[in-house]
Amino acid sequence: MQEQNKVFDVINPDSARPLILTCEHASAAIPSGYDNLGLSPMWLDTHIARDKGCRELTETLAQKLGCTAFLAGYSRLFVDYNRRETEASLIVDESDKVIIPGNQNLSDAERKYRIENYHRPYYHAIMAKIESLRQQGVTPRIFSVHGFTPQLRGGSFRPWNAGILYVTPNAFAEKLLRGLRNLPELKVDANVPYDMRRYNTGAAAICGEDIGLENAVIEIRDSEFDDMAAGVAKWGNILYDILN
Asked: Which domains are present in the chain?
């Protein structure tokens, strides 16, 4: 079952499984009235707007595992659901050297509007689900699905197929890391290409780390989804086997 919402989507909202999936960069959509933030449509099909394949993978995992999943409804360029409200990078005026015209000189009122109407409802919904599960005697783990581009402009090549990110080592993150490292065809490491111990942000941190729940983020290189159907099937099977 999938509920539609303009701010986010929820799959299996009534599931009592002790796992919650989140996908903060699931969409490249920009709300109507914002003229794509002044960007050419081609930019909305790139890594600066969304994480390729991660929405499809999250949907697949939720269906296979029968767990609840939350998927952000709008692009990280409009408001980054993978940030805390107080972070400057919640709304960026430039991404990978691309200027975002609609975010230049953003007023405090507009920033507040995007937080209150888009970012905050997403987190309220996840926290409400956590509380509902806890009232049923279920302690959930939080698993966020993300992707990374093989190379940022002017940056070094990122050789990993995937990384497992966490702030504090925990059994859930270690299980994921161990399961992926057991696959010799994959190059996998902890806290790559981003070190969550440094950034401590996003749903896994806010809805997991901050309140003492086991959590992890997976970052999958987006070239894994160049063949979308094959990539989603591959990673859906890999993660299902580890998580089930």
From this structure: 2-243 (3.40.630.40)
